[in-house]
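Lecture notes, unit on protein representations.

Consider one protein chain, 259 amino acids long.
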Amino acid sequence: MPKADAQGLALLQRAHRLSIPFENLDVILGRGIAIDSASVFAKLVTARRGGYCFEHNRLFGDALAALGFEARPLLGRVWINRPDAVPNRTHALSLVTIGGQEWIADTGFGGAYCPPMPLADGEEVEGPDGARHRLARDPLFGWMLEREGPPLAEGAPPKGWLKQYSFTSDEVFPADLETSNWWTSTSPMSRFRNFRLASLVLPHGFASLTDRRYHRRAGDTATAGTIDDPRVYRMRMSLMFGIDLSAEEVSGLGLFETD
């Protein structure tokens, strides 16, 4: 069993993201997203599905508490593709205190993978895909997490330090999480209401599926393609992401024309 220290935190977060995919398919299928502990465990563990940040970090937070870590949730604003407007607080992550030092940990950011890192200005860490991540204080939004490295998908912005998300260390209450989760899963303006997303951390890379566009990077090798057959989509979801969908569920995602 991992110890309640920095190394144990890193091992737990990596194991979580290697095993449980990020996905928002139940949002598109109109099923709603419950983020209480029992519902999240039933979906992500018992039913072997994935989820998005509010689900992942609820499950991870419960695991941390059971293993003796001191942890609490935080809320953040995702800045990817939002250069000119302040985004809502639609991202959840965890603040973990180890020996008096605060760390951020995150099992639920679907666009990239950042290992746990001390909450300190200028702190940097490298992910399994070779990308660098750094923290910087932000005068308006508290903290900003940035990423520099290989693009995660075709058409991604050029290399350079790019904003991922900002957050503060303010106390977050259950009502705050419920409100943010409700907006994220129901608002027509939410990305999760407009795209079908899945991603998974690989031992030395990252795989993602956005609607019908697939992208996989492992080391220096990258592959990409468009899925034109619902049977291939269903197979890809199962083999790559471990998400088993019925033919009716794939049809309900509205990705493919029907007769």
